[in-house]
Amino acid sequence: MKRMNTEEGFTGLEAAIVLIAFVVVAAVFSYVVLGAGFFTTQKAQEVVYTSVDQASSSVEILGQVYGYGTYNSGTKSYDNIGKIQFKVGLTAGGSPVDFSKTSLTFVTDTNVSRLQLADEKRVDEDEVTSGKWGVIKVFNAPGEDLLLENQEQFVILASPVASDNVTANQNFHIEIRPSVGASYSINRKVTPSIQAVNVLN
């Protein structure tokens, strides 16, 4: 007895349905792959920008660094540097720096001292006592806050702790460390003869 083939042929409608199913699956898969690629690219871009911000300093020194001598009435001379003054601004294209969240560290050959911020706004010179620092003058800044922005300049006064005793011919450096970005270091040497006002190079 002859056996008959009962399998029916693949109709055009069934072929179309299978083709559409493959196209939909491929479209969904490609969308997922592209989405993951865009997400990865965006994250990589954020990492690059964050790394650049962390690696580069937004602060630079403008002009000279001055040291104010401490007068000794007994010897009638200036024995050491009591306060140090300098002006800061942003580098070209630098991000704003919040000096209320910035720390200053004073370093000598024998001591490391972290100076305390006198106040989170502008202060008078006499408020900057031993072991403190503050912004005593601002240029091109309308407000009272300590956010250093483009074209603005801050005059900073720092007073080392008494134990540092910054004397003639002594090397020191001040490290400015913002909350975001790399720190900036000021390296200077005290003059051989200390006067009331000294330009530190």
Q: What do you see in this structure?
A:
By secondary structure, this protein is of the alpha+beta class. 22% of the residues lie in helices and 38% in strands. The chain has one helix and eleven strands. It has one helix at residues 12-55, and strands at 59-72, 77-90, 97-98, 103-108, 112-117, 132-139, 147-148, 153-159, 171-177, 184-189, 197-200. The strands form two sheets. Strands 10-9-4-5-6-8-2-1-11 form a nine-stranded mixed β-sheet, with no helix packed on it. It has a two-stranded antiparallel sheet with strand order 3-7. The longest helix is centred in the first third of the chain and has 44 residues, at 12-55. The N and C termini lie far apart (114 Å). The relative contact order is 0.18. Mean pLDDT is 84; it is low at 51-55.
